[in-house]
Amino acid sequence: MRKFRAPFRKAIFICTQKRPDGHPVPCCANRGGMALRQELREMVKNEELDMELKVFTSGCLGACEHGPVAVRYPEKEYLLGITKDDLPEIMDELLED
Fold first, then answer.
1. How much is the pTM?
2. pLDDT in tens, 39-92
């Protein structure tokens, strides 16, 4: 194993987990997780911060009933029930030092 310091300062992982149709547990994919991730990535790119802030796709983060769900690092903070309207605030928080 090799270890090295990540080349970005902050990261957010947005759940895009897709469960099979008819599954009793909800999933973030069916609640817009992928679109939220894509839009936030575009916001980061438009600010030319894509080398400093990373927006990753994630599998299940374990809070399915509260989705879409994300987790921010280094804050180690869950974001639950994200909507498109939350993205500007999320972006502002990613920019904070």
1. 0.90
2. 999 999 999 998 999 999 999 998 988 989 999 999 999 999 999 999 999 999
For 56, counting Cβ atoms within 10 Å of its Cβ (0-12 exposed, 13-18 middle, 19+ buried), the class is middle
Q: What does the DSSP assignment read for 28-92?
A: SGGGTHHHHHHHHHHHHHHTT-TTTEEEEEES--S-GGG-SEEEEETTTEEEES--GGGHHHHHH
Q: How many domains does the chain have?
A: 1
The radius of gyration computed from the CA coordinates of the chain, to the nearest angstrom, equals 14
**Domain at 90, CATH number:** 3.40.30.10
